[in-house]
TrEMBL record:
<comment type="function">
    <text>Sigma factors are initiation factors that promote the attachment of RNA polymerase to specific initiation sites and are then released. This sigma factor is involved in regulation of expression of heat shock genes.</text>
</comment>
<keyword id="KW-0346">Stress response</keyword>
<dbReference type="GO" id="GO:0006352">
    <property type="term" value="P:DNA-templated transcription initiation"/>
</dbReference>
<dbReference type="GO" id="GO:0003677">
    <property type="term" value="F:DNA binding"/>
</dbReference>
<dbReference type="Pfam" id="PF04545">
    <property type="entry name" value="Sigma70_r4"/>
</dbReference>
<keyword id="KW-0804">Transcription</keyword>
<dbReference type="InterPro" id="IPR036388">
    <property type="entry name" value="WH-like_DNA-bd_sf"/>
</dbReference>
<comment type="subunit">
    <text>Interacts with the RNA polymerase core enzyme.</text>
</comment>
<dbReference type="Pfam" id="PF04542">
    <property type="entry name" value="Sigma70_r2"/>
</dbReference>
<dbReference type="InterPro" id="IPR050813">
    <property type="entry name" value="Sigma-70_Factor"/>
</dbReference>
<feature type="domain" description="RNA polymerase sigma-70">
    <location>
        <begin position="78"/>
        <end position="91"/>
    </location>
</feature>
<dbReference type="InterPro" id="IPR007627">
    <property type="entry name" value="RNA_pol_sigma70_r2"/>
</dbReference>
<dbReference type="InterPro" id="IPR013324">
    <property type="entry name" value="RNA_pol_sigma_r3/r4-like"/>
</dbReference>
<comment type="similarity">
    <text>Belongs to the sigma-70 factor family. RpoH subfamily.</text>
</comment>
<keyword id="KW-0805">Transcription regulation</keyword>
<protein>
    <recommendedName>
        <fullName>RNA polymerase sigma factor RpoH</fullName>
    </recommendedName>
</protein>
<dbReference type="GO" id="GO:0005737">
    <property type="term" value="C:cytoplasm"/>
</dbReference>
Length: 284
């Protein structure tokens, strides 16, 4: 099946996200028997049509998972697209003889692709707090040997390799696996509900001038290094990144694809490569 979204046909998330969500929600959910039959046809006979039906029937699940990662400031359509890639990988590897439902197996693959997408793009949206955390944030996903929680030996090995403490690796792994919670109280919440918002439980350090100065200098340095890294890109890559992440009215993959006369997947590849170059430059 590959890693493209061709298997989902015209339902690929594009310019009209609301229509896409409505369409995938209208696709019937498979019964246990239907799912098993399709999975067996794919697993034993290599039936591509069975794979397509399995993917289509679980697209609504990808949308649900993508919404839980909306707090990172990344476009929901892009998160859905990455999750669909993970779904197709899961369908390709699904073994119906194991006796579990596809959704239970696929959730790890869907989240893994979304995590990787967030890791690739988070540096542009919000810079991590320390150099060690940035290095860990960008490398932890690729260094994990499986989608399950890491063992103590794996944690210690990664900590030694990246030059951080083992507890920092555990903390980052937990952050990557967690679901976002709103920092402030939801709109319309009463006084009792608002009192439980996380914002009320943080220490206010805004009165410390030295901390404010240090944070301001660090932010200026980060911005300077970001602009320096951007200047090393070719004009097309620079334009793609700027319009995807550095403007208020962010362009979609499909909008840029139409403008440059290439596929949305090609724009995605160019964006990924440019992000990698920037990450290497800024971490140097």
């Amino acid at each position: 099946m590959g890693t493209s979204l061709q298997v989902v046909g015209n339902l690929s998330p594009g310019q009209n996200l609301d229509a896409y969500v409505q369409n995938v929600t209208a696709i019937p959910v498979l019964s246990v028997e239907e799912e098993r039959s399709l999975a067996e046809r794919l697993h034993f006979d290599g039936d591509v049509e069975a794979a397509r039906q399995l993917v289509m029937s679980h697209l609504r699940f990808v949308v649900h998972v993508a919404k839980t990662y909306s707090g990172y400031g990344l476009p929901l359509g892009d998160l859905i697209q990455e999750g669909n890639v993970g779904l197709m990988k899961a369908v390709k590897r699904f073994d119906p003889t194991m006796g579990v439902r596809l959704v239970s197996f696929a959730v790890h693959w869907v989240k893994a692709e979304m995590h990787e997408f967030i890791l690739r793009n988070w540096r542009i949206v919000k810079v991590a707090t320390t150099k060690a955390q940035r290095k860990l944030f960008f490398n932890l996903r690729s260094k994990k040997k499986s989608l399950s929680w890491m063992t103590n030996d794996e944690v210690n090995a990664i900590a030694e390799d990246l030059g951080v403490e083992a507890k920092v690796v555990r903390q980052m792994e937990g952050r990557m696996a967690s679901v976002d919670t709103a920092f402030d109280a939801p709109e319309g919440a009463d006084d009792e509900q608002a009192a439980w918002a996380p914002a009320h439980y943080l220490e206010d350090k805004s009165a410390d001038p030295s901390m404010q100065l240090e944070e301001a200098n660090w932010e200026q340095d980060s911005q300077r290094r970001l602009m320096s890294a951007m200047s090393e890109l070719d004009e097309r890559s620079k334009d793609i990144l700027a319009r995807r992440w550095l403007t208020d009215d962010k362009a979609t993959l499909h909008e840029l694809a139409a403008e440059y006369g290439v596929s949305a997947e090609r724009i995605r590849q160019l964006e990924k490569n440019a992000m990698k170059k920037i990450r290497v430059s800024m971490e140097a």
